[in-house]
Amino acid sequence: MKVLVLNSGSSSLKYQLFEMPEGKVLCAGLVEKIGESTGKLELQIDDNRIEINEPFADHKVALHKVAQLLTDPQYQILNSASEIEAVGHRVVHGGERFSATTLITPEVKTNIQDLFSLAPLHNPANLQGIEVAEKVFAEAKQYAVFDTAFHSSIPEHAYRFAIPKELYSKYGTRVYGFHGTSHRYVANQAIKHLGLINQDSKIITVHLGNGCSIAAVKNGQSIDTSMGLGPLSGLIMGTRSGDIDPSVLFYLLEQGYEIEQIKTILNKQSGMKGLTGDNDLRNINTRALEGDLDAQLALDMYSYRIKKYIGAYMAALGGVDAIVFTAGVGENDAATRAKSCAGMHGFGIEIDSVANETRKKGIREIQHGKVKILVIPTDEEYEIARQSYNLILGKSPY
Questions:
Q1: N or C, which end of the chain has less CB nearby within 10 Å?
Q2: pLDDT over 70 for what percent of the chain?
Q3: 59 to 36, 86, 137, 215: CA distances (angstroms)
Q4: What is the pLDDT of residues 218-245, one digit of tens each?
């Protein structure tokens, strides 16, 4: 069975085609700068990379072009678009309405639209991708896989804020969490790797990319996570501040800043970029080694925040079997992993420096101490394909 996975951004479209249940990637690609005067489409088939530079007026034009390439005889991917039996869509916010992957219906689309205010940068683009795919791949089942769904198991004492109850009951103001598809995937991979299937397990998953989040996963279920109502809280990120004293917001308002200015500052001008002027951790690491004090401080702050959350989640879980690092930074930045686990020997957390610096494919164990420290490459696209495939078979998505 062929399953297409789509991730629609405001001006981009990522896609990946799988043969299921094997999980074989038939092709993958990206369309960028949709709606701009110049655009780019990339298609990767095994070791062959095709690039097309032309404007794409909207997502419909972009997805039609993708479908055309998938069915082009010279690439031998599909004979026709009807071969795709399921399309899995990444949808960022499911609110309290969606706790699992679901078949997309008119009612589901209305509910996704109702959640625009909670994810104004993402849900509108996600819905647009769904509506276009329904036309381009009209014979396929369409499924929504929500970033927030994995965290729907968080208990009320952890997801509620200490604010008037009315603000929760009327507006849904609570912790939702994000990166759930990634956290679910790597937590399950860790449980399998450690032989903890059908046993008690306590896993801390650390997703570090330009956006960063950490989750406490007990027996395969999320019980807490660092992101909240939106994807701004928690760890220090590429351009986002992470946790901040709310008094800072009132203070900036009193200094004459407007709400939109503060949103821009905290979402796009803060985090590592605010501290160093750069949000690429590779450059920041190089600068730190060259003696740049701003870079050194930023890295200290970045890893200290991760360490604080690890400690908090060890307490929430009542211990920990494994700490999992994943995503771009988590998988590739040995220095960040080492600094985030430094000084935790008393808790059985100790990095093996040689294993930490050694690159290899697949799951890696990089610990000396009794707590397993794992590097697990995330695969959100495969997880979306797997869940969609399970649903089309009439099984639980998980």
A1: C
A2: 100
A3: 11, 19, 14, 33
A4: 999 999 999 999 889 999 999 999 999 9
The closest alpha carbon to 220, from 243, 191, 179, belongs to 191
Query: Which of 147, 321, 333, 379 does the annotation list as catalytic?
Result: 147
Strands, E assignment, 327-382: 364-365, 372-375
Running DSSP on this structure, what letter comes out for residue 80? -
Q: For the chain, which domains are there? A: 2-146 (3.30.420.40), 198-380 (3.30.420.40)
Exposed, middle or buried by CB within 10 Å (0-12, 13-18, 19+), for 197? Answer: exposed
58 labelled catalytic: no
Q: Pairing relation of β-strands 102-103 and 84-91?
A: unpaired
What is the DSSP annotation of 224-273? EES--SSTTSSS--SS---S--HHHHHHHHHTT--HHHHHHHHHHS-HHH
Give SS3 for 316.
helix
The single-letter code of the amino acid at 362 is: G
Amino acid at 214: I
Residue owning tokens 């970033």? 147
Residue pLDDT, tens place only, 260-290 = 999 999 999 999 999 999 999 999 999 999 9
- What residue has token string 């395969």? 220
Handedness of CA 264, 265, 267, 273 (dihedral sign): positive
Q: For residue 57, give the amino acid letter.
A: A
What torsion, rounded to 10 degrees, do the Cα atoms 374, 377, 378, 382 define? -130
pLDDT per position as a tens digit, 163-195: 999 999 999 999 999 999 999 999 999 999 999
Is the model's pTM score more than 0.90? yes
Listing from the earlier edge strand, what are the strands of the sheet with 322-326?
A: 221-225, 212-218, 202-208, 322-326, 372-375, 364-365
Q: What is the dihedral of CA 306, 312, 316, 318, to 10 degrees?
A: 100
Beta carbons of 301 and 236 less than 8 angstroms apart? yes
